[in-house]
Design brief:
Structural class: alpha/beta
CATH superfamily of one domain: P-loop containing nucleotide triphosphate hydrolases
Strand order of the largest sheet: 5-6-7
Largest sheet: 3 strands, parallel
Number of strands: 7
Radius of gyration: 22 Å
Number of helices: 11
Helix content: 40-55%
Low-confidence stretches: none
CATH topology of one domain: Rossmann fold
Shape: globular
Order of helices and strands: HHEEHEEHHEHHEHEHHH
Strand content: 5-15%
CATH class of one domain: Alpha Beta
């Protein structure tokens, strides 16, 4: 219901919006290596279905060329910088719940051509963003990461064990150990792709040494490492142990990306 504030907000009425079409264009933009491919992807977007069941695409409406023209400049990555002056390419962001949740392939390839090490974020949750990054973006883009990082906290481990928000500030090693099962599943999923996995343990003031040790021991038991991070308080310096751990994995060269399905596999079987 909109217009509840009366004038100047318009009459009270029912309204709504559908983000699917815009998100589909964003996803197409992120997966396109160039303008020609972008236009081809836009042309295939389904916009309607005729009464006889035949699909109507953007190409049928001759909307693919104009849409590609509107997105021509949007295909170029945006260069920004962090507070510490590190170059950062921020380019597009399709929702991970209805799309693949990764930034553009163009930006990632550009970064790989300009830097020795590139860090990219994938969606939210290793079971959603990371899976789509590997199975969709890496597959289509012909890229393969040398290391995977799962960001975690002690507080989240407690919540996964059933504790309430009001209980998170008190030490509870047993709850941390129980809640670590969720984190271990994420780590194991990524290990299944043939990648070395690190856990970036983002420290809060209320975390105790015993709780931190409980997470590190649980992760170590399945062949991964949890590295304590304090970048929220110390900036880049607080993430240096994680950076060194990543470089060690990259230099070891043990990553062997293995996708879990093939392009030809039907959707139901992929699931």
């Amino acid at each position: 219901m909109v217009g509840l504030g009366r004038p100047p907000n318009g009459p009270v009425r029912e309204d709504g919006f559908d983000i699917t079409a815009a998100s589909e264009m964003m996803a197409a933009l992120c997966l396109a290596p160039d303008l020609a491919d972008l236009r081809a992807r836009l042309a295939r977007i389904l916009v309607a279905t005729r009464c006889d069941g035949i699909p109507v695409t953007a190409a049928d409406l001759k909307a693919d060329g104009t849409t590609a023209a509107l997105l021509r400049d949007a295909l170029m990555p945006n260069l920004v910088q962090t507070l510490e002056g590190t170059p950062d390419l921020v380019h597009d962001g399709p929702f991970a719940d209805i799309a693949h949740g990764c930034n553009s392939l163009v930006a990632t390839r550009m970064a790989l051509g300009l830097a020795n090490v590139v860090v990219t974020e994938a969606g939210f949750g290793a079971d959603l963003g990371a899976e789509k990054f590997l199975n969709i973006k890496c597959r289509l883009g012909g890229i393969a990461p040398g290391c995977a990082i799962v960001v975690a906290t002690v507080r989240a481990r407690k919540m996964h064990a059933g504790l309430t928000r009001g209980e998170l500030g008190r030490e509870n090693v047993a709850a941390v150990t129980r809640g670590a099962a969720n984190l271990l599943r994420h780590v194991a999923n990524l290990q299944g792709f043939g990648l070395p996995v690190l856990v970036a343990l983002n420290r809060f003031d209320t975390d105790t040494e015993a709780e931190i040790a409980a997470v590190q021991e649980a992760v170590a038991a399945i062949g991964a490492e949890a590295v304590l991070c304090t970048h929220w308080a110390e900036g880049g310096e607080g993430a240096m142990p994680l950076a060194r751990a990543v470089l060690a994995r990259l230099n070891a060269g043990t990553a062997r990306l293995s996708l879990l399905d093939t392009d030809e596999l039907p959707l139901a079987e992929k699931i």
